[in-house]
Amino acid sequence: MRRPPVQGRTPPGCTGGTSRSPQPSTALHCLEVTLRNALHAALRREHGRPDWWSAAPLDTDGDRLVSEARRKCERRIRHRQVTADDVVAELSFGFWVKLLSGRHARTFWVPALHRAFPSDIGRRDDLHRRFVTMMRLRNRTSHHEPIHHRHLEAGHATLHHLLACLDAEPAAQALRLDRVPAVLKQRQDTCPGLRPPRF
């Protein structure tokens, strides 16, 4: 699946669909795009170049993921040179979340990535744990795996908290388009038989 192109700011609405028919995972997609753009901007500023991975101290796995992303871009884009933005858009949510881990605290968090979060976020390890939870939820929804056993209300609140930590504008737009509370309410009414199930 081709990821949306990187832009200076997160696209309005951060939606994969239209505002008339937002998908339940729209806010998760918005979180992924907002995190990617914020971390990329912080690292670009820190290293003074759009292909910051050429100067940043990525570990072996990070280098491998960037190389794979570049190769995918080269196979897909044949009519022009592959740009840094193409590579960034190809990198997975997991790549960006991993940059927030304790393993990268001294090399990425301290010099640059903390600046991607303009509001008070608490501890870095708690922030990373929350993003890992959202990444797992996003992977399950992307692969149409069951999520009914999860505490979805808490996950929903975490998602909006993380968006607000990154950028107030996409957070407000995601709230406006969000239909998850209505879906969760339907589930609460359906399980005890107050509402007939629908498919």
Keywords:
mainly alpha; 9 helices; 199 residues
Content-based structural category = mainly alpha
End-to-end C-alpha gap: 26 Å
- This entry's quaternary arrangement is single chain
| Strands, total number | 0
Let me know the largest β-sheet. Answer: none
Describe the structure.
The chain has 199 residues and is mainly alpha-helical. It contains nine helices and no strands. Helix 2 (60-76) packs across helix 3 (84-90). The longest helix is centred in the first third of the chain and has 22 residues, at 26-47. The protein is globular and about 60 Å long.
Summarize the structure.
The chain has helices at 26-47, 60-76, 84-90, 93-98, 105-109, 124-142, 152-166, 168-177, 180-190. With 199 residues, it is mainly alpha-helical.
